[in-house]
């Protein structure tokens, strides 16, 4: 997931998702199923608002999570952006819950120290 996200490879992300995957990222409308997930990731990774991402694997409340940092240009530092909490079953992602805002990253990263 991290490698595919880093390279903006939507097809590789799709290969990791269950057919009935659920993606939530309030206040956005949830994405349900692979077709909506493809649109979600295609839109997210094509945005010029955050052209460079840095994702770090970790845990949030004992489950797999990815901490997302972004920057708009090479001369800016990366800023905490969001936490993706993953629910994995039988080797595929069945749910992804994204908590937007750097404060969420700081809360969970502080637990890992």
Which SSEs are present, and which pair or pack?
Elements: H1 2-6, H2 10-15, E1 17-24, E2 31-32, H3 33-46, E3 52-60, E4 63-71, E5 79-89, E6 92-100, H4 102-112
Parallel strand pairs: 1-6
Antiparallel strand pairs: 1-2, 3-4, 4-5, 5-6
Keywords:
alpha+beta, about 110 residues, single chain, 6-stranded mixed sheet, about 40% strand
The backbone outline, from C-alpha atoms, is: globular
Rounded average pLDDT: 88
Write the element-wise H/E pattern from the N-terminal end onward.
HHEEHEEEEH
Q: Main β-sheet, in a few words?
A: 6 strands, mixed
* Spatial separation of the terminal alpha carbons: 23 Å
Structural class per helix/strand content? alpha+beta
Task: Give the proportion of residues in helices.
Answer: 25-40%
How many strand segments? 6
Describe what is shown at a glance:
The chain has 113 residues and is of the alpha+beta class.
Structure description:
The chain is an alpha+beta fold and 113 residues long. Helix content is 32%, strand content 42%. The protein has four helices and six strands. It has helices at residues 2-6, 10-15, 33-46, 102-112; strands at residues 17-24, 31-32, 52-60, 63-71, 79-89, 92-100. The chain has a six-stranded mixed beta sheet, sandwiched between helices. The longest helix is centred in the middle third of the chain and has 14 residues, at 33-46. The two termini are 23 Å apart. The model has no long low-confidence stretch (mean pLDDT 88).
